[in-house]
Structures are given as C-alpha cells and as structure tokens.
Amino acid sequence: MTFGARYRDAVGSRGRFCVGVDPHPELLTAWGLGVDADGVRRFADICVEAFAGTAAVVKPQVAFFEPFGADGFAVLADLIAACRAGGALVLADAKRGDIGSTMAAYASAWLADGSPLRADAVTVSPYLGFGALAPALSAARAADGAVFTLARTSNPDGTGVQTARVMGTGVTVAQQIVDEAAGENADGSASVGLVVGATRAHGLDLARFGGPILAPGLGAQGASAADLPEVFAGADTRWVLPASSRDILRHGPDVAALHAAVERTRDEVEGALGP
Ligand SMILES: O=C(O)c1cc(=O)[nH]c(=O)n1[C@@H]1O[C@H](COP(=O)(O)O)[C@@H](O)[C@H]1O
C-alpha cells in the first residue's frame, strides 16, 4: 500500500492533524520530570498513551532526543514503534540533507525495514539540491513511506533564501522545490510531501501538488486554524496537514488533557478546512 493510500486512510479516520512530540527541557521541567534520559522516557510514554490511538500523524522532533545520546535514541525508537503499533503514522522530524550517497544512509536509518528507527516518513532539507534527495526518494518508495521536503518554512529567517529566484528562471527556490516534488508524485504514490509553514502567505502555487503538505506553526508560532483556508487557498486542502507541538504539549502531563487537546485542535482544523 503506497504512502498516499496509508496517509488517506489515516487522515480519513482520524482527521487532518499532526501532533509534534518535542520534549523541550522547559516542558520536561513543567511536567515535573528530570531533564535527563529518564525524564524523556516518561515524557515519551505519556505522549504514546495520549496520541498513538488518536492522531493521524505523530511527529517526534529528533533534535530533542539527541542530547541524551544513545539513551535518547533508544527512547525515540520505542516511541516510533509504539505510535506505529497504535495506528498513527510517524513522521520523524530529522531534517536530513546531504550529498546523495550520504542521503542513502540517512534514508536507510529512518525508512528501511529492520532499522530500529523505522518511521513512516522523514523530513529532509533540499538545500544541497533537490536531486541530492534521490536516494531518499527511492528508499521512501521502496518502503511505502515518504520524505517531506522543506519548501517554505514557518520561520521568518527562511524568506530570503526561499523566495530568491532560481538563476535563469523567474521561479522562486521554494516554488521549484514544489514543482520537482510534484513531478515525483506523478506516479500517484504521494511519496514526497512538502513542508509549508501555516504562519504567513507562502506565495506558492500548490494547485498541482498531489501529496501531503505539512503545515507547522499552529499555536506557539502564531498561526490558528482560522488562518488555514486563506493560507492554503488554491491547494487541495485534503492534503493539508496542520501541525502543532508546544500548544498541545502545554496541556501535559495529564494524558486525558493531552488527548483532548489533540481532538479539539483536530476538530478546529477540520472545521476550518472543510471536506
Ligand atoms: O519540519 C517541521 O516540522 C518544521 C518546519 C517548519 O518550517 N517550521 C517548524 O516549526 N517545524 C517544526 O515543527 C515544530 C513546531 O513546534 P511548535 O512551534 O512548538 O508547534 C518544531 O519541531 C519545528 O522544528
């Protein structure tokens, strides 16, 4: 079953929302946990309980596990496996990007069967050239998984480079990434997703893009569900996947409150985007 089919099933039954698992040190402390591997493990266990059976997509932010070394990666591996076992798709937010031969190794870590970190999808950065992502795209297809490539990020610092014109064309860097990603999805597999922040007008033509569009920025970065129809006017909103981390996680460590926050935000998103 292609990633596209699995994705449609997940959002069809659970709604369009991606919850981020970002164990910031401040959140660990606010949850009464230590800023150490044991604290991250407890944080992850609570997130599994609250999200694995509810959210269509769970997105662990790898950066917050890395400071704990091998112990942090062991927690991450268990979180990924438990969320997948609970029926959520897992998008590992690792933002990998390197020369092609190195991308193949990254892709096998996050997408190959048998890897301890095997997720359904991984975020990648196309700024060593979209073509450098080719081994990751092949690995994604082989695994019925996906890579989500940054296009127009939610942070203000990205604007200069992402809205620059590609030499010899009138097309922005971000639009060229969208167009190349759309070409990869022409086979209908939806094995390439985009990352387009929900925080502002992105200036992209997304009309021909047939794959998931991760839209981070809800809550802590200022975007709201009510902004989504305008920001994603012109896109096929069935593919838009709004995401939030801190605005959900601030309701922890109470499992019921976290669960309710996901359902509430998902309902707001579904209401705003419409069928
Ligand atoms: O790829 C991402 O998920 C991402 C892309 C982007 O443009 N902006 C962005 O905020 N993110 C990630 O989405 C999460 C946002 O967290 P909150 O601001 O707490 O909702 C973080 O893990 C970011 O690394």
From TrEMBL:
<keyword id="KW-0456">Lyase</keyword>
<dbReference type="InterPro" id="IPR001754">
    <property type="entry name" value="OMPdeCOase_dom"/>
</dbReference>
<comment type="pathway">
    <text>Pyrimidine metabolism; UMP biosynthesis via de novo pathway; UMP from orotate: step 2/2.</text>
</comment>
<protein>
    <recommendedName>
        <fullName>Orotidine-5'-phosphate decarboxylase</fullName>
        <ecNumber>4.1.1.23</ecNumber>
    </recommendedName>
</protein>
<keyword id="KW-0210">Decarboxylase</keyword>
<feature type="domain" description="Orotidine 5'-phosphate decarboxylase">
    <location>
        <begin position="16"/>
        <end position="261"/>
    </location>
</feature>
<dbReference type="InterPro" id="IPR011995">
    <property type="entry name" value="OMPdecase_type-2"/>
</dbReference>
<dbReference type="Pfam" id="PF00215">
    <property type="entry name" value="OMPdecase"/>
</dbReference>
<keyword id="KW-0665">Pyrimidine biosynthesis</keyword>
<dbReference type="InterPro" id="IPR011060">
    <property type="entry name" value="RibuloseP-bd_barrel"/>
</dbReference>
<dbReference type="InterPro" id="IPR013785">
    <property type="entry name" value="Aldolase_TIM"/>
</dbReference>
<dbReference type="GO" id="GO:0044205">
    <property type="term" value="P:'de novo' UMP biosynthetic process"/>
</dbReference>
<dbReference type="GO" id="GO:0004590">
    <property type="term" value="F:orotidine-5'-phosphate decarboxylase activity"/>
</dbReference>
<comment type="similarity">
    <text>Belongs to the OMP decarboxylase family. Type 2 subfamily.</text>
</comment>
<dbReference type="GO" id="GO:0006207">
    <property type="term" value="P:'de novo' pyrimidine nucleobase biosynthetic process"/>
</dbReference>
<dbReference type="InterPro" id="IPR018089">
    <property type="entry name" value="OMPdecase_AS"/>
</dbReference>
